[in-house]
Design goal:
The longest helix has 20 residues, at about 5-20. With about 190 residues, this protein is an alpha/beta fold. α1 (about 5-20) crosses α2 (about 30-40). About 35% of the residues lie in helices and about 25% in strands.
């Protein structure tokens, strides 16, 4: 790993450990995923037109069942990225999803994954999931868990279509980086 990648990995690990220690708990899978999401917001660039104005927040949405149990809202609380506050919202399937900048699509939405991703066509929404076929279906970042460690894969083709610039620091941390997958609705 290069120094920058090691630094990012350490920042993520330290953030998760500090939050857990403050709560007197061990970090769990969804606290780690929440910490990654905070850092995705920091290391992804959106086109200017993705925001209503210079003061608009970065909206992180969750659609489907919320597995974070409050961990995502806590991780985002008081944080900023690119000079914008980070805001967590539960969103319903439909137009609300298009108002998000990052959208976590819960595993509970697996059966209609392609439909949801299709609804986000021509938007600059960073889609994040946790099901095996997520990036192959056109999602951008998919969480993976192996040996009790959280990692992720990235579909750079889908990110490019969404006009998102993902930092090379994030790409170097990814377990796998792919181009546009077959059946990609984006």
């Amino acid at each position: 790993m290069t120094g920058g990648v090691v630094c990012l990995a350490l920042v993520i690990a330290a953030f998760v450990a500090a939050r857990a220690a403050a709560a007197g708990e061990k970090p769990d899978e969804y606290r780690v995923k929440a910490a990654f999401i905070v850092n995705f917001a920091r290391f992804v660039e959106w086109p200017n037109e993705a925001f209503a104005d210079a003061g608009s927040p970065i909206i992180v949405g969750v659609v489907g069942d919320d597995p974070f149990d409050g961990a995502l809202g806590k991780a985002l609380s008081g944080r900023t990225a690119h000079g914008r506050s980070l805001v967590c919202r539960r969103v319903k399937v439909g137009p609300e999803m298009r108002a998000c900048h990052l959208l976590f699509i819960s595993a509970s939405e697996r059966k209609r994954l392609k439909q949801l991703l299709g609804m986000l066509r021509e938007t600059s929404v960073l889609t994040i999931g946790e099901v095996g076929e997520f990036t192959e279906s056109g999602g951008i970042i998919n969480f993976l868990v192996a040996d009790n460690r959280v990692g992720f894969e990235v579909n750079v083709g889908a990110a490019e279509e969404a006009r998102l610039k993902i930092s090379s620091r994030v790409l170097r941390l990814a377990r796998e980086v792919t181009g546009r997958g077959g059946g990609d609705p984006r």
